Amino acid sequence: MIRLTFLGTAAARPTVGRNVSGLAVQREGELFLFDCGEGTQRQMMRYATGFDVRAMFITHLHADHVLGIPGLLRTMALQGRTDPITLYGPPGSTRTLKDVVALGGEWS
After folding, report:
1. How would CATH label the architecture of 2-12+19-102?
2. What is the pTM of this model?
3. Which of 35, 52, 64, 99 is catalytic?
4. Where are the alpha helices (DSSP H) in the chain?
5. 52 is catalytic
């Protein structure tokens, strides 16, 4: 079974009822995240998706799609996560995604 949880659909401007971009996809016990806007981890708690994300897919590099990555990764590290997580992005996004990940500081 596949479960889709819309964590945010408000594009660049969150509202009281809608967060910025984020979609959690649960499939056969695995959790995948599509976009990770600021506040995504709060929405993940709200909708009980858990934090055991296997991979993140970033549709494009606008800030409202990536600024939640550092906080989410830091939370996972604080919870003792040691499993790697793979980030997928559009062609040419490797450097920018590395910079976004680095915003969270030291991960060990």
Report:
1. 4-Layer Sandwich (3.60)
2. 0.89
3. 64
4. 40-46, 63-66, 69-78, 94-102
5. no
